[in-house]
Design brief:
By secondary structure, the chain is mainly α. Helix content is about 70%, strand content about 5%. The protein has a two-stranded antiparallel sheet with strand order 1-2. About 5% of the residues are buried.
Length: about 150
């Protein structure tokens, strides 16, 4: 075993045996060496651009689903001012079905809202939400379309 391998092995064992101590030491080091981690990353990316790009792509792909899910939650809060719990309560109240057609949701439901007041009305499937949007949420146009179909 080389000296470098021995040192690496010792560090791994020490960190595993003393997780709290290592976290505190690491935190203290980052406080006393601001910017050192960023500079280290910059040097690595400059020295190994292909390897760094590949790692970046892999990490991006691994966390894509989590990122999309979080973006949806943030968007609901930002646009409609409803929390994740309120969204889940609406799903339960509607029995996990669209408020217009009554079909069960197969994908994340759309939040139907009044575009003038931004008031949330209910949860819709993608087709029903798109249909309302095509009629610009105008009940007169929707009635004309219903009469046309009959």
């Amino acid at each position: 075993m080389t000296r470098a391998q021995y040192k690496l092995n010792w560090q791994r064992n020490h960190r595993a045996a003393n997780p709290g101590k290592h976290a505190a030491e690491s935190r203290q080091w980052r406080v006393t060496h601001p910017g050192a981690k960023a500079a280290e990353g910059k040097r690595y990316r400059a020295q190994y651009p292909d390897r760094a790009r590949k790692q970046c792509r892999e990490n991006y792909a691994i966390h894509a689903a989590q990122r999309v899910k979080q973006m949806g939650k943030n968007r609901r809060i930002r646009l409609y001012r409803i929390t994740e719990q309120q969204f889940q309560d609406m799903l339960v109240q509607q029995n996990n079905k669209c408020a217009i057609c009554g079909n069960p949701f197969t994908k994340t439901p759309h939040i139907d809202h009044d575009h003038n007041t931004n008031t949330v009305r209910s949860l819709l499937c993608g087709n029903c939400n798109t249909g309302l949007g095509m009629f610009h949420d105008n009940p007169i146009l929707l009635q004309k379309a219903a009469v046309y179909l009959i």
